[in-house]
Specification:
Elements (H helix, E strand, L loop, with lengths): L3 H9 L1 H17 L5 E2 L11 H13 L2 H5 L9 H15 L8 E4 L1 H13 L5 E5 L5 H8 L3 E5 L10 H7 L4 E6 L12 H18 L4 E5 L22 E6 L12 E4 L7 H14 L7 H9 L7 H18 L11 E5 L5 H10 L2 E2 L1 E2 L8 E5 L4 H14 L7
Parallel strand pairs: 1-10, 3-4, 3-5, 5-6, 6-7
Antiparallel strand pairs: 2-8, 7-8, 9-12, 11-12
The structure holds pyridoxal-5'-phosphate.
Length: about 400
């Protein structure tokens, strides 16, 4: 029999798996065109050509044993890490070297590596609601305690008074995700500055170190000229978790990196810890070929304009129908107020109309639903008349 802990986790994750299975079942029954699957954050914009070209070049030019072998360091290939560091230096006027970069198995791998490195059992990790539901599992993996901070519902920026109150002597880390999954909100410079001020104040009051973990797989997916503040500039004890899953449409390849700035308290120990955590979590090192591809694709990008057209059409389309939501500035999600209080019931109802969406409860924010618009444009256009049937659903219950 599997462990009791795992039995609970399997039961808890069945809703999302069920949605996945349900999508496939509906597609088989009614045809792909008649199912509107907005459930997954799986990119649909083409992978840049440079990625495939890089694969061919690498296979043609690199020694195959070295390429496919264990890396010399569990942190990853030194040349790749140095190239990433220099790219960051160019973009953010920083002074990183390979010694600040650890290659990871996507952002999920990076978050697990850093939480394993930082947490003792009972340490608290603050998250801002709504948040990527997997944070619950990642923090629980290391016997940490998740502490939730509610947002201002008007704009989904964090409630900073509530934040200050929730910091305790046991607070070891704060996870921040901007652009945000599920709201698409980019936290303002003002918000970031205030978060930093509060953290400095609390570190002094409690005589502790509190790490800000910036989970930023959506950094490049922004609209209307918005820029995402680079958090190490605002708060010294910042660790960055980056991923190419969304920015290069490579989620199945599992590649990303951690930035551990020198300015961060105990940075050398954190780097050493992350290297060991990468090994003992069983990743050993991030996929070798993928690392080499990234080095050749540091200037590559996907067609963000495609997501932008989806965003505009879906946002205006839903608003015109009477749905209430804020216009996202980044990522590829819309977080919409459910027309009835019970978001889970609403999403079940939507399924009857072949619309697959995720209840806000999955992000610790009931009463809302998430629409992932990383789908074909036609799916959005064809789904809007179906959403029209759902907006006044209360009357039909
Ligand atoms: N963090 C957030 C906020 C995400 O939305 C996701 C994936 O959707 C991840 C982390 C994990 O991404 P990756 O595929 O890089 O592991």
């Amino acid at each position: 029999m599997i462990s009791q802990k795992m039995q609970k986790l399997v039961a808890g994750s069945s809703a999302i798996r069920a949605m996945f299975t349900e999508g496939n079942r509906l597609r088989e029954l009614y045809g792909k065109k008649n199912v509107f699957d907005f459930s997954l954050g799986n990119p649909n914009v083409a992978v840049p050509n440079q990625v495939n070209e890089a694969i061919v070049e690498i296979l043609d030019s690199e020694d195959s044993l070295a390429l496919h072998g264990y890396n010399k360091s569990n942190a990853g290939h030194a040349d790749v890490r140095q190239a990433i560091a220099e790219n960051l230096n160019e973009r953010f006027k920083t002074d990183f070297s390979e010694q600040n970069i650890v290659m990871t198995v996507g952002a999920a791998g990076g978050l697990n590596v850093i939480l394993k490195t930082l947490l003792d059992p009972g340490d608290e990790v603050i998250v801002f609601v709504p948040f990527f539901g997997e944070y619950r599992n990642y923090v629980a993996n290391y016997d940490g305690i998740l502490v939730e901070v509610s947002p201002h519902i008007s704009d989904f920026q964090p409630d900073l008074l509530a934040f200050a109150k929730r910091i305790s002597k046991r607070t070891k880390a704060v996870i921040i995700n901007t652009p945000n999954n599920p709201t698409g909100v980019v936290y303002s410079r003002e918000t970031i500055k205030k978060i930093a001020e509060i953290l400095v104040e609390k570190e002094q009051a409690f005589d502790t170190d509190i790490y800000l973990i910036s989970d930023e797989p959506y950094r490049e997916l922004v609209y209307d000229g918005v820029t995402v503040p680079f958090l190490p500039h605002y708060y010294q004890n910042t660790l960055v978790v980056y991923s190419y899953s969304k920015s290069l449409s490579l989620p199945g390849e599992r590649i990303g990196y951690l930035v551990i700035p020198n300015g961060c308290k105990d940075s050398a120990a954190i780097f050493a810890g992350a290297e060991v955590a990468t090994r003992i979590l069983g990743f050993v090192n991030a996929p070798s070929l993928q690392q080499k591809i990234i080095k050749k694709c540091l200037h590559a990008s996907i067609d963000v304009a495609y997501y932008n057209r989806n965003r505009e059409t879906l946002y205006h389309g839903l608003k015109d129908l009477g749905f209430v939501c804020i216009k996202p500035q980044g990522a590829f999600y819309l977080f919409v107020k459910a027309p009835i209080e019970d978001d889970v019931a609403f999403c079940k109802m939507a399924k009857r109309f072949h619309i697959l969406i995720v209840p806000g409860s999955a992000f610790a924010c009931p009463g809302y639903f998430r629409v992932a618009y990383c789908v074909a444009y036609e799916t959005i256009v064809n789904a809007l008349p179906v959403f029209a049937k759902l907006v006044n659903v209360e009357e039909k219950i």
